[in-house]
Design goal:
The complex is a heterodimer. By secondary structure, chain A is α+β, with helices and mostly antiparallel strands. In chain A, 30% of the residues lie in helices and 33% in strands. Chain A is built from three helices and four strands. Chain A has a four-stranded antiparallel β-sheet. In chain A, strand 2 and strand 3 form a beta hairpin. A five-stranded mixed β-sheet of chain B has the order 3-2-1-4-5. Chain B starts with 7 loop residues before the first helix and ends in a 9-residue tail after the last helix. Classes of the chains: A alpha+beta, B alpha+beta. Chains A and B meet through helix 1 of A and helix 4, strand 5 and helix 5 of B.
């Protein structure tokens, strides 16, 4: 499996906590059940820039895109998905 | 000096902290909205304390504490509800506030979009909460 960084521009946010949490839980479940089995690993939210940086594990970029509903993509369209490698600076301490 | 949590003394100490913290004043300069924190004994059950904060443009204009038995609480732009252990974990640094919201350990009533647009203010408010020492420490 490859690692990817998906960058979203957050245009809209669900107005209630329940809608937000339920949608994200749904996305996580959908991604696990999708044919390519993409795994949403973690996210970083930059509130000032209104961007969401999400780390995924998947076979392909397309497997990640397939996980999202149209509504999710309207609210937070994907600006880019790029294959990445994780570099851990703590290795420098060894 | 530490203050029991939850108590009016802790709330008043936080009021002072918020209004003497230059970073909070700067970060929260755009924030407009009051907030109720409902500290429950058990999730969804009777509450132990309710704290009211009138937060406006980087200042805390007023706080008020409500004891159990109070029948009428003010309405606020945001209401945060959680059992005591969850509130305590957030303000003692054990639980990240955003993680607490995402997992519903901290329940939010109010416009989530406004809250998420102002994450830096939310985090800085919690930083000020953490600056007020709690004594005695609670163990859950």
């Amino acid at each position: 499996m490859k690692r990817y960084l998906a960058i979203h521009k957050v245009r809209n946010v669900f107005p209630t906590q329940d809608e937000w949490v339920d949608d994200w839980r749904g996305l996580r479940q959908r991604s696990r059940q999708a044919p390519g089995c993409a795994v949403w690993l973690t996210s970083f939210y930059a509130a000032v820039a209104g961007k969401l940086y999400c780390e995924w594990e998947a076979e392909s970029e397309e497997d990640i895109r397939r996980c999202f509903t149209r509504n999710e993509l309207d609210m937070a369209p994907i600006e880019s998905i790029q294959e990445i490698v994780r570099l851990d600076p703590s290795w420098l301490d060894e | 000096m530490g203050y029991p949590f939850p108590s009016e003394a802790w709330l008043l100490a936080l009021h002072q902290t918020l209004n003497h913290d230059a970073q909070y004043a700067r970060t929260a300069r755009g924030w407009e909205g009051d907030m109720l924190c409902v500290i429950e004994a058990v999730q969804g059950k009777e509450w132990l304390a309710v704290f009211y904060f009138d937060l406006w443009h980087g200042a805390c204009r007023r706080v008020e504490s409500f004891a159990p038995g109070t029948t009428e609480l003010p309405s606020a732009r945001f209401t945060l509800r959680a059992p005591l252990p969850n509130f305590y974990k957030v303000i003692s640094g054990e639980l990240d506030p955003m993680q607490a919201m995402m997992t519903r350990r901290l329940r939010v009533e109010g416009n989530m979009a406004y809250m998420l647009r102002n994450v830096p203010t939310v985090l800085d408010f919690v930083r000020c909460c953490r600056a007020v020492e709690i004594e005695p420490k609670l163990v859950f």
